[in-house]
Amino acid sequence: MNEVSELLNTHFQAFKDEASPYDFFPKLADYVRYVIETDKFAPILAELRKQQSEQYQKLDDYYDKAVKELGASKEKLVEIVNKNNLSSPSITEALKTIEALKNGTMHVSNPPKELSDCLFAIAKSIGQQGKIDLLKIFNNPKPIFHNIYGDFIFSTTLTDFNNHHEMVKELWDMEQWGALSHLTVLEAAISFYEPMENLLILLPKDGKPHWQKVEEGAEKIGLVMEWREIKNEAQNYPHQQGSNNHFSSIFAKIESFKQWATRLHNFLLKEVVKQSNLPDKKSKGKIKLFFSADDGLYREKNNKKISYPIRGKRAKLVKFLKNGKIKGSELVLQLDQPLYLVSKEIEEINTNFKAKLELADGLIIRLETGGYKLDNTKFLIQFLD
User: Fold this and answer.
1) How many CB atoms lie within 10 A of CB 257?
2) d(CA 83, CA 351)
């Protein structure tokens, strides 16, 4: 293990078993700070941030299109209301909400949905005033659920936005880039010493939300408030620390951050191993391969990852051979199979290896002197586990 990996492990070990929120979060923030400030991790983090940015850019694009369509529907509804001298408290309230959303005096978690709900309130009131025929342009020909007040659709893109929004929220909790995002926000929250009002501006001056900034900003606000409460309790009421109901949610949050940190930590260790280059004289002309328990055998080709997800006894056999030549009789003992089955397994491994990884040669060769070995004359294999 190199120096960078050793230091990474040192920082990780410092917080992973801490039970007190007052001790856990600052030590986790130190770990995140080390990751962010270490040059070795910079290209890895840049790739993760790129993946996150791509997801949120798609969400922003859906948002822009949905809001534009909803705005056009709003203008048509207002025209119907004005031409027919219609009015009601619900129409008035809906228009006030739409204006508040537009000028930024109202903040909600899902503005397009709120805007659509306002338009539905207006349409519902128009229908209740006997003008339902004027709303035919908004009829949804394929409603999923029938609404007694009308099956209206005010934006064809709104469903795409909502679906992608839900997917991004799931990815935020499950993907490597999500783990990095949560941990980076945590580090920023622990390091925040300014007045709370400086946190509350989540929208840029143009009033348009950029969803990554909005959602990370909302998480930061919550974490800053919780961290200040943790510090206050630990410093002023140490005998009561962790005793109230609020802290049950804090301890649950610790578990979430442990999972995100562990996920990112293991990923970084694997990436550091992959980036470590062997001397040119050993690797020149060889095809570089990687082996891990999760992914099996894989390699890069044309900037894409192609893999052979080898499992079970076949994966075990490959790992036995990583240290050099092994006699057939030893493989028989290790795999608890007769030699003819071991030979058949090796034949199947080579067949799948060539097919899955798009290679002309097999991975394992049989030596004239007896025994088997990995073909290290053609392949440079890094074992990541």
Assistant:
1) 19
2) 75
